[in-house]
């Protein structure tokens, strides 16, 4: 059975109080919990990179454990190369115990050049980032098992010791690795973490990463990701999401994800293609599009992004409720 999650980057204007952004996402997560979503994921961004207000997604997950009952609360992602892995291991272990095992922690190697610069870190080559991430994950897993040796602590120069706290043995099986390249897929497979895809990637790329993951020994779960907007019918969905689509399309063009000389499409439907990869329509239409994505590359979890600049909170709530009324199903 396909499970549904909801992902948010906690974006907002720099001048908006972060407390307002956090509370808006808290209410969105409470609603997702009531509606039956299985996961809620929060992204890490520093100094308003990608308009994000949240540098510590683990704290958001821990806070919302006290405001929800069933939903798994996760990080998508903790940028490992910005942190010492032993500190990450300790913080995640502590949080998961306090959350009664509802953690679903996602890790990744990447960040923006601006964020690396904030921490005085160079932007290294992809192969170096992946190698360091794999070493970090080995140290994290050893810490969760309760024994770190000097050798497993390399290259981080960690003394041999017996960490505390020790989380539930199933914590690694509930953790995920962000995969945006074949190299990252191989690390995920080697470490046998679940695999978390970005909405920026195509089905063909999903297939390529999935193949590399399995070739490296990965046997965990795969989570696809898509921005989604649902209304009572296709026309209504496009009519109310079009302002948000145009804002996002123009942002992608300004960020270089779309060539600068590309003219803006006239019709809202033409804004939805790659790299936005936006799914829009009635509940039935959206379900069919989820099913088509599943046929092109099988997945066990579909993470949806529903909150975008240009959409009011009541519209976002209606979108989530319509998804839930359709049973949060993918007709596969």
Number of domains: 2
Radius of gyration: 19 Å
CATH superfamily of the largest domain: Luciferase-like domain
State the helical fraction.
40-55%
Tell the overall outline. Answer: globular
Strand order of the largest sheet: 1-2-3-4-5-6-7-9
Strand content: 5-15%
- SS element count, helices: 10
> Which spans have pLDDT < 50 for at least 5 consecutive residues?
none
Q: What would you call the structural class?
A: alpha/beta
Please provide the count of β strands.
9
Q: What's the pLDDT, averaged over the residues?
A: 95
Q: What is the second-level CATH architecture of the largest domain?
A: Alpha-Beta Barrel
Topology-level CATH name of the largest domain? TIM Barrel
Order of helices and strands: EHEHEHEHHEHEHEHEHEH
CATH class descriptor name of the largest domain: Alpha Beta
Largest sheet: 8 strands, parallel, barrel
Distance between the termini: 9 Å
The gist of it:
With 332 residues, the protein is of the alpha/beta class.
Give a structural overview:
With 332 residues, the protein is α/β, with parallel strands linked by helices. It folds into two domains: 1-174, TIM Barrel; 223-332, no CATH class. 42% of the residues lie in helices and 15% in strands. The chain has ten helices and nine strands. The protein has helices at residues 18-35, 57-65, 85-98, 113-118, 126-145, 182-191, 203-215, 234-254, 283-296, 313-325; strands at residues 3-8, 39-42, 72-79, 103-108, 176-179, 194-197, 222-230, 279-281, 301-305. An eight-stranded parallel barrel has the order 1-2-3-4-5-6-7-9, surrounded by eight helices. Helix 6 runs parallel beside helix 7 (203-215). The radius of gyration is 19 Å and the shape is globular. The mean pLDDT is 95.
